[in-house]
Amino acid sequence: MPRSDDPALSVSEVNRRARQLLESGIGELWVEGELSGVSRPASGHIYFTLKDASAQLRCALFRTRARFVAAPMRDGDRVKVRGRVSLFEPRGDYQLIAEAVQAAGEGELLAALERLKQRLAAEGVFANARPLPCPPRHLLVLTSPTGAAIRDVLAVLAARWPLAQVTLIPVPVQGHESVPALIAALGLLNRQQTLDPGQDVILITRGGGSLEDLWAFNDENLARAIFHSRLPVMSAVGHEVDTTLSDLAADVRAPTPSAAAEQLVPDRHDLLRGLDSLERQLTRTTQARLNREAQRLDHLRARLRHPGEVLVRQRRMLDEVDARLSRALKRRIGEECYRLDQLQRRLSARPPRREVELAGKRLASAGARLGQAMQHGLTRQHERLAGLVRQLQAVSPLAVLGRGYAILQDDSGKVVRRAADTQPGQALTARLGEGKLKVEVKRRLK
């Protein structure tokens, strides 16, 4: 026993020594238990508790290791955890620092199922999606004859579609005998389908249960048998949350046996209501059509005349048209004869030769007048042009230059008006009354 006068340790020192003892004394180990209180904060670490019937152990799976855990960690899963026992010094919490997490027991079974599911999906076993006839001509139900599933299916079919032809193929739906029986039944039905083409849909179903109860429907060989079935297959195994390999391999999946029956056949009450609506619509349409046709018949009857009456009226119209045509023809002939007579008299009064001679005289006279007018016009224009030339010369700068003046321009052609605008040595052009001179500025004078 330590004495009272021995130096006291701090809480941090005690927790540090405890952590060292735990880590060196126990080391790394595997622990199996049930997951509880799984927490995933934003840091990426995973905190959880492993428990069994009489104890529990807090665990921490840090982010660097959590990313290597393939299966999801959910409360209730049974797992095996590899790690080292340690202590979180700030709070003094005893915990297991996890390095790896594996499924244990049922968890291992589910992990194997998940691997099988991925392999079958990669092979295309879950690619069936053939449409089912609705309603089927002959429904073949593979299930237990004493289970609740067949009672639910038959009850729904009786309520929705009493005309459905159903054949029950009794098979065990759990246990070791169920898988061979289901596969054998599928093979037999596919062989019989060639003899009886009326069989067109297979329903594989059973009620809910535990994972062990439904495990037969996760068999790989059964899934492949469903995939290779020539007859379309609907699977309805378990409850809504259950999904087996048989469900995935089937052409259509239903969440429950009752839901499968509802998908397979229409509701007769809906069809009857639809038929009543169509009957009322057909009656209204037919009556409206009859009314329209009756009105059209009355209209045609009012327009209908006896053929004899029509012929008499057409003959009378023909006679009137013939008489009008004869009168019009006679009148037109008379008018044309009168017009011809008038033209002949005009031609006799004014023969063409005389008209040509008169036109020649008029042309000669017009030519003489045209020549005189042109000569007179040219004379006036010459006089006007001479006057304009005289006016232009009076105001032309060339006339000023002719009197001894000159225009100075620089190299750009700009007129130099002031001596201040030039520089000594600058070359200028002097334009005279006749010709140009190139000059150079020697100096400027005020």
UniProtKB/TrEMBL annotation:
EC number: 3.1.11.6
GO biological process: DNA catabolic process
Molecular-function annotations in GO: exodeoxyribonuclease VII activity; nucleic acid binding
Coiled-coil regions, chain positions: none
Enzyme class: hydrolase
Location(s) in or outside the cell: Cytoplasm
Domain OB-fold nucleic acid binding residue range list: 9-101
GO cellular component: cytoplasm; exodeoxyribonuclease VII complex
InterPro entries: Exonuc_VII_L, Exonuc_VII_lsu_C, OB-fold_nuc-bd_dom
Xref: Pfam families: Exonuc_VII_L, tRNA_anti_2
CDD domains assigned: ExoVII_LU_OBF
PANTHER family with a match to the protein in the record: EXODEOXYRIBONUCLEASE 7 LARGE SUBUNIT (PTHR30008:SF0)
Family statement: Belongs to the XseA family.
Function comment: Bidirectionally degrades single-stranded DNA into large acid-insoluble oligonucleotides, which are then degraded further into small acid-soluble oligonucleotides.
Protein name: Exodeoxyribonuclease 7 large subunit
